[in-house]
Amino acid sequence: MARHRRDTYYWRAKAEGYRSRAAYKLQQINKKFNVIREDSDVVDLGAAPGGWLEVARELTKRKVVGVDILRIKPMDRITIIRGDITREETVSQIKEAVGEDGADAVICDAAPNLSGNWNLDHARSIALAESALECATRILKPQGNFVVKVFQGDMFKEYLDKVRGEFTYVRAHSPEASRSESAEIYVVGKKFLTAPIRKGEEYDVVIERMGSGGDGTAFVEGFVVFICDTEKGEKVRIKVRDVKPNFAFADVIQRLESPEEEEK
Questions:
Q1: Does 39 carry a binding-site annotation?
Q2: Would you say 41 is a known binding-site residue?
């Protein structure tokens, strides 16, 4: 109660009719990153009590779906699903609610029940964020956006790298409405990648043609990969350095066969 008495956003939420002060975090995140647009279909994971759902409903004219294992009081223009996002039946319900094309934005402000043991709470936060990421990759449209809350700690960088493997643009951000003493931070991923390859993966490929800039071009499951310092016909083992929506860049880690050797 003492903290609430000093909390401007708590009283502002009361005065403006939001279910929680967290509403202002999403407003601020969206103002900076534009993850939800007027034409976005939005899924909010771990949505109870509904503060982010209220803001999502203000930001878009399209579908908003809220999911939680806890009960969420009904809200106009919002589809509520009560279920566990790690269960297949819940994911199927989300897909049915949002439509065949998928969601434009998946957001998650969920937090684990706190034990007071920081290492345990951090690990639980990461596990929850990983479940949100896994669910998002199954329901997002190509080029879709993702926002998730995570507690900072030793496992944060590894989680951030996982998100970087799925989105073109990734940032960690702390909105003004987050309490100064809080260890929470929000990971924002934009432009969901549907490419068949991911950053850091290795492949054996053949350079099929040379690009105008002098880089070799190979294909992985039909997806274009640009590789510098190669020649047409050369067989190489590559490691993917960066992935964009329509192409990727990779480096040679081993030369398997040169064009001259092939001719012999």
A1: no
A2: no
Question: What residue has token string 């064009």?
Answer: 259
Q: Is 50 marked as binding a ligand?
A: yes
Query: CA 257 → CA 29, 94, 254, 263, distances in Å?
Result: 50, 48, 9, 10
Question: Is 84 marked as a binding-site residue?
Answer: yes
Domain ranges of the chain: 2-192, 202-263
pLDDT tens sequence across 42-77: 999 999 999 999 999 999 999 999 999 999 999 999
Is residue 149 annotated as part of the catalytic site, yes or no?
yes
Its pTM surpasses 0.85: no
Q: What is the CATH number of domain 202-263?
A: 2.40.50.140
Residue 50 in contact with residue 72, Cβ under 8 Å? yes
Say whether the peptide bond before residue 259 is cis (omega within 30 degrees of 0): no
Q: What residue type is 74 in one-letter code?
A: P
How many other CB atoms are found less than 10 A from the CB of residue 19?
Answer: 17
Question: pLDDT tens, 164-211?
Answer: 989 999 999 999 988 777 789 999 999 999 889 988 999 999 999 998
Catalytic residue selected from 25, 149, 162, 199:
149
